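We keep the chain:
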Amino acid sequence: MYFEDYDNHGGQERTGDDVYSKPVRAGKRTYFFDVKATKGNDYYLTITESKRRVERDGKFVYDKHKIFLYKEDFEKFSDGLKEVIDYIKEKCPVTETRPYEDKPYDKDYSDVNFDEL
């Protein structure tokens, strides 16, 4: 979880007035779902994918990709997203794996070695 990413989200890139924001942390990425308002008080959605990486000098930088989704496109976007997610789930079921291992992730298992703490 990268709190720096959440704290710095948007920064100078902000357009429109912020109405609501929902960050979703997923591994090395954070997704931001931001509801914004135009000057005419019409709402739209921005979806930002942010991934933290380390530069050669050791400093952290964030790669960000953003899309703007307008309310007249919500239904088509939602239908298309659901269709491709269902397709992927059917063809290649999602299994969580533990980092750096090929074993499935067991939520009841912890590999913490208390002697090392």
Notes: The chain has one domain: 3-111. The longest strand covers residues 43-54.
